[in-house]
Design brief:
This protein is α/β, with parallel strands linked by helices. The chain contains eight helices and 14 strands. Strands 3, 4, 5, 6, 7, 13 and 14 form a seven-stranded mixed β-sheet that branches. Strands 10-9-8-11-12 form a five-stranded parallel β-sheet, with helices on both faces. Strands 1-2 form a two-stranded antiparallel ribbon.
């Protein structure tokens, strides 16, 4: 059997529980493709999966799904971009040599040099042709942030001229949500920290609110749609004030509202908007594959802007 390098999560804990090992290279089944991974990413979800540090109401369900004392899938990682090296005999959507990007879902396994995935969508992943005008590293950012932003922004049925607020505008999903709202013709306000104000403006936000300095909103301000892009675990006076600023008939949505839908058709839409220049990935830092532990330390601090990517090949 051929070997490949992969990071194994030996148990729940700090970044150091991730250990670089040589393991067997997978072989695709009849309905699978084998992807040579060129890039992955360290997402907030990866941090939760590795550390298992969650409030008790989330911790028990997650342990039941992923594993009691360590992840059942020893190779974690949710995001990948790469090239199809081989395909099963029943595969019709992809060909050898296709450049693809996708999310692995409960299948995990992106912290490796190779990964087998089904061509059809399931809870174990979705896969699509990657945007041609961005790198593999950039593609990993628009997968995770894009799928989150698109799924929850669609709940707002945003119309041209409406006022939209993105709470957590500088994160992976927030940076995409700003650009999507602008593309839809909305007037966008972004909430972020002092260091990210200019970056959020550059993405299309007409107004920005610094959560490190403000805990109230201007009297009378109202929004037609509010996206909480940081999740319900993080609370603040400002977030409470935002909820109260919803216009009559408006909608408040959190990225924690339900599970992420793994949808290759949505990935194809993201590809179109990226190639048309309407959405640009924001990369905070790029680490080498051997530096995944350090990347986990950085993302765990909670101050990244956009995505943190890993160059595998």
């Amino acid at each position: 059997m051929e070997k490949m390098k992969a990071f194994i999560c030996t148990k729940y804990g700090p970044p150091e529980v991730l250990q670089l090992r040589e393991v067997e290279k997978p072989l695709p089944k009849d309905n699978e493709v084998l992807i040579k991974i060129y890039a992955t990413a360290v997402t907030a979800s990866d941090i939760f999966i590795r550390s298992s540090q969650l409030p008790i109401q989330f911790l028990i369900p997650m342990r039941l799904m992923l594993g009691l004392t360590k992840p059942r899938k020893s190779i974690i990682g949710l995001v990948l971009a790469g090239e199809i090296e081989s395909i099963g005999k029943n595969v019709k959507r992809f060909r050898i040599g296709d450049q693809v990007y996708g999310l692995t879902g409960f299948g995990l396994g992106a912290y490796a040099e190779y990964k087998c995935m089904k061509e059809t969508d399931s809870t174990h992943g979705c896969l699509a042709i990657k945007p041609a005008n961005i790198s593999y590293e950039e593609a990993t950012v628009v997968i995770y942030g894009g799928l989150l932003a698109f799924q929850y922004m669609e709940k707002g049925n945003i119309q041209r001229g409406q006022k939209v607020l993105i709470y957590g505008a500088s994160g992976t999903s927030g940076t995409t949500a700003i650009q999507l709202a602008k593309y839809l013709g909305a007037k966008v306000t972004g909430v972020c920290s002092t260091t990210n104000l200019e970056m959020v403006k550059s993405l299309g936000a007409e107004a920005v609110i610094d959560y490190t300095k403000e805990d109230t909103l201007n009297p009378g301000v109202q929004y037609d749609f509010i996206l909480d892009a940081v999740g319900k675990i993080k609370t603040s006076k400002l977030k409470d004030a935002c909820k109260k600023a919803l216009a009559p008939g408006g909608k408040y949505v959190s990225i924690d509202d339900g599970s992420l839908k793994l949808d290759s058709k949505r990935l194809a839409l993201i590809k179109e908007l990226v190639e048309a220049g309407h959405i640009k990935p924001v990369v905070d830092r790029c680490y080498q594959f051997e530096e995944i532990v350090e990347a986990h330390r950085y993302v765990g601090k909670g101050h990244k802007k956009g995505g943190v990517v890993i160059k595998v090949k």
